[in-house]
Design brief:
Layout lengths: L5 H10 L10 E2 L3 E2 L1 H11 L19 H10 L1 E3 L9 E5 L4 E10 L3 E8 L6 E6 L2 H4 L2 E6 L5
Antiparallel strand pairs: 1-2, 3-8, 4-5, 4-8, 5-6, 6-7
Length: 147
């Protein structure tokens, strides 16, 4: 079996663009939230067991639990070393409470693929990662089994 690459992660995430946003959603093309996107990617690519999940959480997580779970199940990487196919944790209001996957954008830029409940309609989207959004990234992580 061929090892999973960061490129595989990005390719699969892009296939799920326009999946409707749904709190605690775990079903690609039916409904995902930001955590569900990462969980579904890891499950589908065989990086975790098919029954892997995280405990119930509110629509406004405190950020501490999210970062603790990311550190438990993923490998932290410095944001300067983060690459397309890595996950990022983002501050949206006060706390780190949003997740996405980095993707390439052109030759020297990055994009963010994430399940956004503030897009119209709420869904999985991809957009260029502008400096204002970069400043809100608090941590980056590699999926399990990805070097």
């Amino acid at each position: 079996m061929k090892p999973v690459t960061r490129s595989d992660i990005v390719t699969l995430a892009r296939l799920w663009i326009d999946t409707p946003w749904h709190h605690m959603g775990r079903v690609p093309l039916v409904g995902l939230d930001c955590a569900g996107l990462l969980i579904a990617l890891a499950r589908t690519l065989g990086l975790v067991s098919a029954c892997f999940d995280v405990p119930a959480y509110t629509r406004e997580p405190d950020g501490k639990q999210m970062l603790a779970l990311l550190r438990k199940f993923m490998r932290p990487v410095g944001f300067d070393a983060a690459q397309p196919g890595d996950a990022v944790c983002i501050v949206t209001d006060t706390y780190p409470q949003h997740l996405g996957v980095l993707a390439g954008y052109g030759q020297h830029s990055l994009a963010l693929i994430h399940a956004s409940n503030s897009s119209h309609p709420p869904r999985v989207i991809e957009h260029r990662l502008l400096q204002s959004r970069r400043l809100k990234i608090v941590a980056a992580f590699a999926f399990p089994g990805i070097e």
